[in-house]
Design brief:
Number of helices: 15
Strand content: 15-25%
Radius of gyration: 22 Å
Structural class: alpha/beta
Strand order of the largest sheet: 13-17-16-15-14
Distance between the termini: 29 Å
Number of domains: 4
CATH topology of the largest domain: Alpha-D-Glucose-1,6-Bisphosphate, Chain A, domain 3
Helix content: 25-40%
CATH superfamily of the largest domain: Alpha-D-Glucose-1,6-Bisphosphate, subunit A, domain 3
Largest sheet: 5 strands, antiparallel
CATH architecture of the largest domain: 3-Layer(aba) Sandwich
Number of strands: 17
CATH class of the largest domain: Alpha Beta
Amino acid sequence: MTPEVVARYAAAFGHYLRAAGAAGDPDAYVLVGRDSRTSGELLSAAAAAGLRAAGIPVRDAGIAPTPTLLLAVRDDARAIGGLVLTASHNPVEWNGLKLASGSGMFVSPQAGVEVQRLFEAGPELAEWDALGSGGTRDGVAEHHIERILSLPVLDLEAIRRRAPVVALDCVHGAGGTVLPQLLRKLGCEVEGIGLAPDGRFPRDPEPVPANLGDLCELVRSRGAEIGMAVDPDGDRLALVDRSGLPVGEDWTLALAAEYVLGRNPGALVTNYSSSQSIEEVASRAGADFYRAPVGEARVALKMVAVQAVVGGEGNGGVMLPDLNLTRDAAVAAALVLNLLAVRKATLDELLAGRTRYHMVKRKVERGDVDPEDAYGRMRAALPGGASENDEDGLRLAWTDAREWVHVRPSGTEPILRVIAEATSRDRAESLADLAGGVLRANGG
């Protein structure tokens, strides 16, 4: 991920937008932003140069969470797209590009393939007298906060009356530009670590339980009601209860959806690798429930197709169509706090008595394995009686036993991902080991 690569890829995106007819308005522009990584400023300048070289005007929003930038794109009729420099939850040395359409949604898989083709072929650049202009765009964080505060689904006074103490870890990422301010406007007392968006991540930035030790200690030492952790680009939220124990990322979407469905009945969508705890929320609410292939854009497309009122992924990513069709840690935080406030319960009290599922994940080297052949071996080796879904790899679910296993090719690594969930860790481990063993024994 060098400046040359970024400029060429951004120019390919610009070429795609012009070819699609999105750049006809002389006031149109692409919004460019970044998370807080130390390479971000350099690479966002390269991205802006590539877009401008393709004849696309650019406005630079600086450091901001990905959902903040995509909301700014959605709410500005002049914005024909967005480009975000971020490697999301990945370690500090990485960086990457996320592309969005003028709707504020990530581009479709088909559009992504076309941009990649243009990148490889060499994008067409504009003539010397048709280069795109530059400039800045201020106020995106404030816009995001105000839009959340204006959501009809929220009961702001209920949260403000409760005035919870929230321990917050932004891991020195872009979430520090939005989350602390939003929580304070909601009436929370914020005890924070890693709030400065300087990109100096003190730990592995993915907000999984193994990486949240400092947040857990902050919850205990400050007597916080709840702990919240976000990833570097602010689209995933993980929760810690008042005793300092992480509850697992799937509960973020489950609880946010429980609140939304209680106020605004409708459909709920998540992906095939997300927990049954989310499906059970839909069942209790009497809501239609759908799954989609893994990937935020795919979940968003399914949400549009079924007119879902809430959705997301079980990695802590909540999507609220009334705001935008992208994962958003800030809106997730507001929804979870509102649920606790209206139920007059703490997080541990709310989860007491509910089935706590155990999820296990494995990686198997792809090697020369033919996925379709591997799926056939999986069907033969695993217990019978499972319901099957092959829309995204192979997912086998044993509904009565409340367990499932999902095998799919990774979109980012030369591996097959194996995910299993059951009511006990031993059983989840057994399912994952069995599936992984079948793959490894046959060339994986």
